Amino acid sequence: MGKTVTDSPAAARQRTVLFSLCFDILLWIPEIIVVVLSGSVTMFADVLKGGNELLATFFALVVIYIMSRGAQFKYDYGMGKFETITRALTGGVMLISIFIIFVTAVHRLFAPTSVGSAGAFIGIPLMIITAVTDGYLWKKNFGISQTDPSPIMEAQWRLRRAKTFADIAVLGSLALTFTLMGIPQAEYIDPCVSFIIIGFLMIEGFHEISSSLPDLFDVTLEEELQLLILRELTSVFTEYTEFHGVRSRRSGSRVYIDIFLGFDSEKKMGEVQGFIDTLKVSLENQIPGSVVSIVPTQEQKKGN
């Protein structure tokens, strides 16, 4: 019995990301209430972090929805560039959040304030629920990313992994502050732990931006893949007469490779096409997610 539409990888991605977005919205509102009641810098940092994650998850859902509607066929290279731009924007927002949290945490270190007991009392069970659910989504998204690789799902499982550890840090801060309430030194626990959240945001933001920029500027393939292509071409060098270069670009989970070759003018087109088909299949089998085009030409291909 074949798979139904709802069992397809695309449907699984959409359901998981939609659930993640709904879950984030559902818990983000009570987290804001906890910040108001407790005055916790750590919770404030986590709320800003949660806002970034909401943005990232929303963008991911938009891309998946557009692709499920078939809009990727309106573009020669799919929706990969839009996907990459949204990742870069999310990383930029994270960097802005880092500055706001850092200033707030430093101020609280010089003017310590005790965390409100009501906020801590509500925040502790809330963070337990959040940590457990984020851990589940981390595992779920990682599984989908392994079976159906995609920059969207890779970003989602990395985001959930960082969020799970951040949830545990916030939970520890609230629990420790609540336990030691009344002791003057306990007032420093909250702002100090907020720097851990800053660390998670820096890791996430740097990864999103550093992963996006090469694709936006169409950086050439990694040296390992270039060597693989050259090795494959060397093994069949008798089949063509000229090599005019390789051009590549990434678009989301796809890598597009154009190889420009010259052929003997005496060869029949059927022979050339047979060689092209064989080379294309061989390279695409060796480079996951690749779309290879062999372009017969008699002169150097110029331009982008």
Give the SSE layout.
Layout: H1 9-38, H2 41-68, H3 80-110, H4 117-147, H5 151-179, H6 189-216, H7 223-235, E1 242-251, E2 254-262, H8 269-286, E3 290-296
Parallel strand pairs: 2-3
Antiparallel strand pairs: 1-2
Helix pairs in contact: 1-2, 1-4, 2-3, 2-5, 2-6, 3-6, 4-5, 5-6, 7-8
Textual characterization of the structure:
This protein is mainly alpha-helical. It has two domains: 5-216, Up-down Bundle (Alpha-lytic protease prodomain-like); 223-296, Cation efflux protein, cytoplasmic domain (Alpha-Beta Plaits, 2-Layer Sandwich). 68% of the residues lie in helices and 9% in strands. The chain contains eight helices and three strands. The chain has helices spanning 9-38, 41-68, 80-110, 117-147, 151-179, 189-216, 223-235, 269-286; strands at 242-251, 254-262, 290-296. A three-stranded mixed β-sheet has the order 1-2-3. Strand 2, helix 8 (269-286) and strand 3 form a beta-alpha-beta unit. Helix 1 runs antiparallel to helix 2 (41-68) and helix 3 packs antiparallel against helix 6. It is elongated, with a radius of gyration of 25 Å. The model is unreliable at 1-6 (pLDDT under 50).
Keywords:
three-stranded mixed β-sheet, disordered N terminus, single chain, elongated, Alpha-Beta Plaits, 2 domains, Alpha-lytic protease prodomain-like
Summary of the model, kept short:
The chain is mostly helical and 304 residues long. Helices cover 68% and strands 9% of the residues. It contains eight helices and three strands, in the order H-H-H-H-H-H-H-E-E-H-E.
